[in-house]
Design a protein that fits this description.
The protein is of the alpha/beta class. It contains nine helices and 13 strands.
Amino acid sequence: MVIEFRNVSKTYPGGAKPAVEDFSLRVEEGSTTAFVGPSGCGKTTLLRMVNRMVDPDTGAVLVRGEDVADSDPVQLRRSIGYVMQHSGLMPHRTVLDNIADVARLNDAGKRDARKRATEMLELVGLDRQLSGRYPAELSGGQAQRVGVARGLVNEPDVLIMDEPFGAVDPVVRRDLQREIVQLRDTLATTILVVTHDIDEAFFLGDTVVVLGEQARIEQADSPERIMAEPANERVRGFVDTQSRSLRTERRGEETVVVDAAGRVKGVLQ
């Protein structure tokens, strides 16, 4: 177990009700857990409790068996990879420096930091020739890949991702999702990801946690179990199981997989 939430609750100043109330969950080492749910359900609050960007009012969050409340927040954050929506790159720093600066924060020497940054560019599928560019000169997909490289440059055992691909188009989004799956398998990193997209949660997550109001767990299970056996009508409605039923059709020389609306979802090999 790498991350554990123990009965955490959080009410923001002026809030009429808690953003998170009595939430508990264990995240196993090397797994990818996806929090998914409607806007305002508390999923981002939970994510930010892991690196102490938000402190719970009650309860405890443990990382690597230690209560994060007893940790120095700066050192904790440097030990956890973090990827956010819109990449969060520093506009006045080159691509290589954006990545290397994170390594320098963990006491890497300048030469070693730049070497690791270059390796990270290759790991996330970016050409070395991009290293001297500035964020404004990148496409949205390239910027997000640089954001992922920053999150991984210190080879963290824990990576948290907050709506990491929400700002890119669907084709680039799926490519980035595949990159994360490959990186996870390569690096054995424990990943906690927040998304509002159930398809993304199913693609990335070993475990998908469907949240209701105040981060109430409606179901926490494998994507297959959630699809086949939704725990209640709220999960069924959110997942929209009926519209995801699939069938095969013969179209020309190919056998394709289509959904209930007849949209092509894939080709059988």
